[in-house]
Amino acid sequence: MGTRIFQIIGALFAIASLLVFWGDIRNDDTPSKLMGQLWYELSPGSLQLTEAVIDRYIDPCALLTFLGCETFLWHPIIAGLLQWPAGLVLGMIAALIFLGTSFKARRGRKSVRSLKMDGR
Question: Are 13 and 92 in contact (CB under 8 A)?
Fold first, then answer.
């Protein structure tokens, strides 16, 4: 059941990726839409809220102050991804979801040989 939900979410990301690629191909005079630009057009408040939440509550350097390091999740990593073409980022997310669900599905299944060895 959970695997099926993730597969549907992956399919939605794949469709969104194809739609963004199609929009990039149709508009010859404009450059490819960046992920940060697309996110800002869809929901500017959530982009700023996500940055604050990741910087304050998810980044290990912000959570564990005794480490004494600078935050690294948002500014070098996520902000870098937001500068990539949106179709590429959405396609990579879809591929990661599909890979994750295929590995989980493979782990959960037993082969016929292992079932015979178990006596089933």
Answer: no
